[in-house]
Amino acid sequence: MVRVFFNPDYTLDSPLIGDEVKIENLQHIADVDVNSLQEAFEICQNADQFWTGRAEVKPDPIVADGTRSVAPGDVLEFEGEWYLVGPADFQRI
């Protein structure tokens, strides 16, 4: 399972690197029943439906009716490790 967090501290004007992420500021959005970060990222994209409505996703009630896609700056927790979503990869933090 991958836990998905939005990062309110991240902006395109002021991108963060791993050691600047404040875990205590993250907003838990959903849990995704998958076995890899890449699979979680792909599922957490809005396409023909909100990703929060997919069978693999257990969304937090505040986003159950839909929210934005997971994007760079957000954070995923997998197997006890935290990862910052980057433009092309995941950076362990």
Account of the 3D structure:
- The chain is mostly beta strands and 93 residues long.
- The chain has one domain (2-13, 25-92).
- The chain has one helix at residues 37-43, and strands at residues 2-6, 27-32, 57-59, 75-78, 81-85, 90-92.
- The protein has a 6-stranded antiparallel β-sheet, with helices on one face.
- A hairpin with a 2-residue loop joins strand 4 (75-78) and strand 5 (81-85).
- The radius of gyration is 12 Å and the shape is globular.
- The two termini are 18 Å apart.
Taken together, the total number of domains comes to 1
Taking the alpha carbons of the first and last residues, their distance comes to 18 Å
Helix proportion: under 10%
Largest sheet: 6 strands, antiparallel
Please tally the β strands and state the result: 6
Q: What does the radius of gyration come to?
A: 12 Å
- The overall pLDDT average reads 90
Low-confidence stretches: none
Structural class: mainly beta
Quote the beta fraction. 25-35%
Characteristic terms for this protein:
mainly beta; six-stranded antiparallel beta sheet; 93 residues; globular
Write the layout of secondary structure elements.
Layout: E1 2-6, E2 27-32, H1 37-43, E3 57-59, E4 75-78, E5 81-85, E6 90-92
Antiparallel strand pairs: 1-2, 1-4, 2-3, 4-5, 5-6
